[in-house]
Amino acid sequence: MSSSEAATQQRGHSSTSQTGVNVDGNKSKSLAQKVRKREKSQPNLQGYLQKWTNLVKGFQRRWFVLDQGVLSYYLDQSEAHQQSRGSIRLKGALIEHVDACTFSVTNSSGDLNFRIKAASEAERQTWIVALELAKAGTVEVASPAKSSEGGRCRRTRVPDKPNYPLSLWSIVKNCIGKDLTKIPMPVNFNEPLSMLQRLTEDYEYSDILDVASNCEDECEQLAYMAAFTASSYATSSNRINKPFNPLLGETFECDRMDDLGWRCIAEQVSHHPPIAALHCESKNWQCWQEFTMTSKFRGKYMQVIPLGTAFVSFPKTGTRYSWRKVTTTINNIIVGKLWVDQEGEMEIVDANSPQGSKCILTYVPYSYFGREQQRSVKGVVLNRHKQAKWLIRGTWDEQIEIAPVLRTQGTPDNPSYSTGAYKVAWRRRPAPVESEKYYNLTTLACQLNEPEDGVAPTDSRHRPDQRLMEQGLWDESNQEKLRLEEKQRAVRRVREEKAKQGFKVPDYQPLWFKRENASENAMHVYNHKYWEAKTTQSWSDCPDIY
Ligand SMILES: CC(C)CCC[C@@H](C)[C@H]1CC[C@H]2[C@@H]3CC=C4C[C@@H](O)CC[C@]4(C)[C@H]3CC[C@]12C
């Protein structure tokens, strides 16, 4: 029996059922009546209960116990390890389903307890019933919060996507062979996020990096890295809208130090070809990447081949890794429902020594091995002597499991392994309720474009066409988009004119990144000036791009 199970039983509750919570039959009947009664006076209740059920569904293997007013969340042993920063992840999961302000999370010696803080008396009542339903017991829900504790209160959704049908084919049929970023497209196919914001979503499952940062075994660390790289594709399974192509000099900051433990800054450092540079930091790790892509539109489908490299460094273990992203294919451009696939081989290599250990991951394309293999990811971690040490299996849209290799048999060309037990290194959080109405955005994604005071004037959140689009004003947005693109072209023309007249005109100089040629592949790296500039609001060097 795991310790959590023991704890559960000690308190006189039995283990979880399918929905993660055991509801005593008789009790739930009377509670159901109670709910119906309350519902009459509180039409909102059903919504809360729906949210609650969805929340619980997401945690099938976990435990919920109500004890003296505190709803405790227990992890079984294997996950306790995986979620050493569980409070954050837990909070993240909860934020997906309920207003961020209704929760505060505390981490007490191994167990994770969360208290529910209601914003109003009505909401408090609602939670009492919801919790009673989930588990019989006396519940005490804290009274309305005076001020929101820790972290600020963030929005949890964006306006619904309006329905203005337009045929994609009618727009792109004359563009076969062209690059996606060069095809002029109305916002009807967009999502209300810039590519800078979309790339920031790579850190949605940053808790995997926190776990990896504590791995003493480099090969195990690499296995977690595999899970992390796969997790960044989760959203692409149902997000088939085009992010806004950032303007040259556009930036995006995302400071989630207070609740998620990281902050990220991104800048569009080149327009032709479009290149974005990102830098994300936390106390346990640092990540940076340069992203650029080539894309080919081939008629029925379109392929995006990302160029550029992503890096991670773990100060605690002194390790650094790098990898390149795999090819994304967007299918059914002409007819049918659009769908996205990932394919290719990804090598996560030791950035300190090329002879070091590495992880080889294969994103298996659809149709290769039939339906059961859809979206599957398989891989192996090799140590510096090329011996297999960990196996990785799973899918990029659901979960990744990892297991240590105990013995290798067979021939070098056709090895077979016996492994220890597989553990879940990453599991996707369930989609927020009704997200299909708003571009299938996750809660984090919704919060990325939330207006915020004090950010740079070049921040994606100030981009007017993107804001109008989010608000559903697509005609106005399309007009603005044309204006901004024209403004960008005008700046470029002036530069070209000057060059023609023999003036020496330097290329655009990024404000927050510098081009580094030290390594064999030149790339833009962070110059560590952004957050300092933010504290003093020194934005005078920012270009006027909107
Ligand atoms: C014609 C229109 C509708 C096509 C839309 C294409 C969209 C869905 C494609 C174009 C470029 C793609 C992105 C390319 C690279 C990455 C980086 C990776 O770390 C996560 C996925 C992500 C972010 C892809 C998501 C899907 C994407 C945004």
UniProtKB/TrEMBL annotation:
GO terms for cellular component: cytosol; perinuclear endoplasmic reticulum; plasma membrane. GO terms for biological process: intermembrane lipid transfer. Pfam families: Oxysterol_BP, PH. Residues 1-39 are annotated as: Disordered. InterPro entries: OSBP_sf (IPR037239), Oxysterol-bd (IPR000648), Oxysterol-bd_CS (IPR018494), PH-like_dom_sf (IPR011993), PH_domain (IPR001849). Residues 42-136 form the PH domain. Keywords: Lipid transport, Lipid-binding, Phosphoprotein, Transport. The keyword Transport applies. Residues 1-21 have a biased composition (Polar residues). GO terms for molecular function: sterol binding. The keyword Ribonucleoprotein does not apply. Belongs to the OSBP family. PANTHER family: OXYSTEROL-BINDING PROTEIN 1 (PTHR10972:SF205), OXYSTEROL-BINDING PROTEIN-RELATED (PTHR10972). This is Oxysterol-binding protein. It comes from Drosophila albomicans.
